[in-house]
Amino acid sequence: xxxxxxxxxxxxxxxxxxxxxxxxxxxxxxxxxxxxxxxxxxxxxxxxxxxxxxxxxxxxxxxxxxxxxxxxxxxxxxxxxxxxxxxxxxxxxxxxxxxxxxxxxxxxxxxxxxxxxxxxxxxxxxxxxxxxxxxxxxxxxxxxxxxxxxxxxxxxxxxxxxxxxxxxxxxxxxxxxxxxxxxxxxxxxxxxxxxxxxxxxxxxxxxxxxxxxxxxxxxxxxxxxxxxxxxxxxxxxxxxxxxxxxxxxxxxxxxxxxxxxxxxxxxxxxxxxxxxxxxxxxxxxxxxxxxxxxxxxxxxxxxxxxxxxxxxxxxxxxxxxxxxxxxxxxxxxxxxxxxxxxxxxxxxxxxxxxxxxxxxxxxxxxxxxxxxxxxxxxxxxxxxxxx
Length: 387
Known about the structure:
By secondary structure, the chain is α+β, with helices and mostly antiparallel strands. It has helices at 7-33, 40-67, 74-102, 111-117, 119-134, 152-157, 161-173, 183-191, 194-205, 212-233, 243-255, 273-280, 282-300, 326-346, 368-386; strands at 138-140, 146-148, 241-242, 262-270, 307-313, 316-323, 355-361.
């Protein structure tokens, strides 16, 4: 397609095409998420995308003048590069706030800490203003040639630590038991900066390669897809599946005629949960529910067949599990109870936290509603024994 063009022009056109696609992709994500929720975390997500689009546009404008595809105007080149670095600092800052919210970090609950964390952004802004008169970070001469200054690296050092700091926090939390319920989210946060960081490093040494915008837009799309998936299928408190997913997995099992494994449904219900809420408050009640969810996850760790755990509603949970026989299911129930007792003790909880579990084996001719009712009957038989 570009065989008859000069190599520089080919690179310029490729740069332009990739950046335009990146801008459109991120603009679509912005459009789909704008106004969807008033949560602070989502506002930070939106502002990160706003800064990202400014970053893409300024990068594209500078590159087109640099390659000669647009007329070279030194003042405009300088302005584009100033905006490029300021938007870099802002997008890193807003991604940092968004990731901290996602991790439910106490850091972002303090307005004072959030303002303090914005100091590198303000320093970047001041440094870029000084750069207009001194060229200490970079300059564009009268011929339109771009040169880096002695303090150029400082602009990166003021921006990139935001994302790396929050990703390091996510990495350390991966190995802490109390964050087990957030494990999938933490892994994604750890992996998020790898592609953009690698692309930024490549473009640092080879500015003519159009990789930064492409890597950032793809990473943003992945975060958006993950967020929408959680909105649809995940309980926001426990990070378990919601009851809609149980319907989906059960119908999938019924449609899969070749799956000969026995399927069991377990109804799990917290004992005396209302008294926990009434005595210690709903915040402590939420912590108890998260502890139950973690106990089920840990008890099922290493299970060599498929399983799905969901919050059914309130203090009730459902487990769909493919297993060998009733004995294995009874062993699982005991394992969940033991694990919950241990987690509750480790948390220093002032109350006893336990569950009753009813189970029923599924058959192809039984509906999910009837299966749940049968498991519920066994559950309340267990509760009667407890009383």
